[in-house]
Design goal:
Blueprint: E1 23-24, E2 28-29, E3 41-42, E4 46-47, H1 210-214, H2 216-222, H3 225-343
Parallel strand pairs: 1-3, 2-4
């Protein structure tokens, strides 16, 4: 029997076991706790990555929570600087209590760890996806240049730096350290992702002291009934705010759709008016053209008739004149004949 009432162990150590293939004093765990190195865990009933918890998906010392410790329910953390999954537990994807590991060291839970001179991502910080207090890491703090940290001359998303895109006076606010984590936490007047800050797009002047936040008294206060009540109130406020935002968004979408429909109707009406006006103009032009053509034909007919009348009148006058001349000549001949007849 081992230190935790388990029969099978490969090795032992002051920390329960030096190395075991699966577990010690634990029904079943995927990784480890209270053991120098084993493929899974020790001292836990059953959890995927935890310690001292009856059953939870990623926690420690909590009956059931999605990613926390010492708190009934939080989306990410409580009483811990910031860890993606746990609190108060070594919990590393592979190790604990070791100077150098590929993932963690003496830290509740970080994507890449604490208390190591050099690690792939962190040093001396509960939650190390972006970190604090590390000599040199690809993504940490206290370095001249880092992509996502705190206490550095220049970083893209940190605190205590000359220029930060999202934070102020907070170790690292997109995921944070020594701050509950505001997108899912408590004790913050209003901020998109922080705690104990009056108002910031992401962070500003975090009031809560790191020491107080990480202290046992802060953890006790956090797990109290009043903290739970405050958390429930914040959850209700968040749900209400989300509903209000959804309603406003829906109203804006409806207004946009209505405006688009009105614009389309107005455009269609304008197009119809333009087409109707064009048709009217075409009809009027056609009518004018027909009238002009009719007038021209009438003028031509009248002119032709006048010309014909003039020509007929002239012919009549010529005929009459010729007849008169013939009559005069005939009369003169008759008179001459009659005059000359007695003489003969």
């Amino acid at each position: 029997m081992g230190p935790h009432g388990v029969t099978v162990l490969t090795d032992f150590s002051p920390h329960n076991v030096t190395r075991c293939s699966d577990h010690v004093g634990v029904t079943r765990c995927s990784d480890h706790v209270g053991v120098t190195l084993c493929s899974d865990h020790v001292d836990v009933t059953r959890c995927s990555d935890h310690v001292d918890v009856t059953r939870c998906s990623d926690h420690v010392d909590v009956t059931r929570c999605s990613d926390h410790e010492g708190v009934t329910r939080c989306s990410d953390h409580v009483g811990v600087t910031r860890c993606s999954d746990h609190v108060g537990v070594t919990r590393c994807s592979d190790h604990v209590g070791v100077t150098l590991c590929s993932d963690h060291v003496d830290v509740t839970r970080c994507s890449d760890h604490v208390d190591v001179t050099r690690c792939s991502d962190h040093v001396d910080v509960t939650r190390c996806s972006d970190h604090v207090d590390v000599t040199l890491c690809s993504d940490h703090v206290d370095v001249t240049r880092c992509s996502d940290h705190v206490d550095v001359t220049r970083c893209s998303d940190h605190v205590d730096v000359t220029r930060c895109s999202d934070h102020v006076d907070v170790t690292r606010c997109s995921d944070h350290v020594d701050v509950t984590r505001c997108s899912d936490h408590v004790d913050v007047t209003r901020c998109s992702d922080h705690v104990d800050v009056t108002r910031c797009s992401d962070h500003v002047d975090v009031t809560l002291a790191l020491t107080m936040w990480t202290s046992l008294s802060a953890l006790t206060m956090w797990t109290s009934l009043s903290a739970l009540t405050m958390w429930t109130s914040l959850a209700a406020l968040t749900m209400w705010t989300s509903l209000a935002a959804l309603t406003m968004w829906t109203s804006l979408a409806a207004l946009t759709m209505w405006t688009s429909l009105s614009a389309l109707t107005m455009w269609t009406s304008l197009a119809a008016l333009t087409m109707w006006t064009s048709l009217a103009a075409l009809t009027m032009w056609t009518s004018l053209s027909a009238l002009t053509m009719w007038t021209s034909l009438s003028a031509l007919t009248m002119w032709t008739s006048l010309s014909a009348l003039t020509m007929w009148t002239s012919l009549s006058a010529l005929t009459m004149w010729t007849s008169l001349a013939a009559l005069t000549m005939w009369t003169s001949l008759a008179a001459l004949t009659m005059w000359t007849s007695p003489l003969l």
